[in-house]
Amino acid sequence: WLGSVLKVLTRKVAYRALWPLLQIAARGELLCVLAVSPLAEDQLRRVGFPKQVIYPYAYFVEKKVVDANSKNTEEGALQVVFSGSLIKRKGLDVALAAVRQVNRAKLPVRLDVYGAGVVDQQAIERTAGARYCGIYPQFEAQQVLSGYQLLLVPSRHEGWGLVVNEALMQGVPVVASDRVGAGCLIESSGAGMIFKSEMVDDLVKVLEKLAKDSFELVRITKACKELDGKITPTAGAEYMMRVFEYHFSHLGERPIPGWLNLS
């Protein structure tokens, strides 16, 4: 706990000193900053980075071929997965509280929890419909996530959240808190929903809607296709080159990343 507090306090000082130091190191050249997520963009602007040097960026993964017969199915139940480190910042407690409320309303939601860390088995066992499923190798992420109808990312803070990419690549929509950087993919594509971080009641409303309305679930699932080819390493590299050409060689217009320009 003390280490986390010191890290946050140190960052506040270090980030404010970063822009002047980078200007000195660049010897007058105009810096180009690739900010991973709108959260990072806001943070950089708050500590003094000029808006014109900041360009949106993201994390990228290749789409993998998975076993199409691995779907977890249970008649009438919404199949949800949580995948992440079992620490407070990831918000598993928020997810469990919301699932308990939804299940008490007789709208069955089944939550499978994957992740490393200290597992509060009692908290999971007290939640009807929840179970701990252990961990899986990173290279199997898309295979595991593809077996569910919905990925839940309830983090209190998440700079990006690569698990969001892994799910969307397999056509699995995502419900995430508004403190998840990768939420910009959900907002631009419509492939999921955003709830206010730590607000259990807000998450309950989202889960209840999806448990009741199969058409809404189908809609956000289909919306995952909007991101096809937009969040691959190739797409990221091509966008980066356009940024460099515009910023350093003054060629063309200021580029807009494909994952945010889906209209």
How would you characterize the overall build of this protein?
With 263 residues, this protein is an alpha/beta fold. Helices cover 43% and strands 13% of the residues. The chain contains 10 helices and 8 strands. The strands form 2 sheets. A 6-stranded parallel sheet has the order 5-4-3-6-7-8, with helices on both faces. The protein has a two-stranded parallel ribbon with strand order 1-2. Helix 3 packs across helix 8 and helix 8 packs across helix 9. The chain starts with a helix and ends in a 14-residue tail after the last helix. The mean pLDDT is 92.
Unreliable residue runs: none
Which bin fits the share of residues in helices? 40-55%
Distance between the termini: 44 Å
Structural class by SSE content = alpha/beta
Number of helices: 10
- Number of E strands: 8
Strand content: 5-15%
Average pLDDT figure: 92
Q: In one word, what is the shape?
A: globular
Radius of gyration: 20 Å
Q: What is the succession of H and E elements?
A: HEHEEHEHEHEHEHEHHH
Strands of the widest sheet, in order across it, are: 5-4-3-6-7-8
Q: For the report, how would you describe the main beta sheet? A: 6 strands, parallel
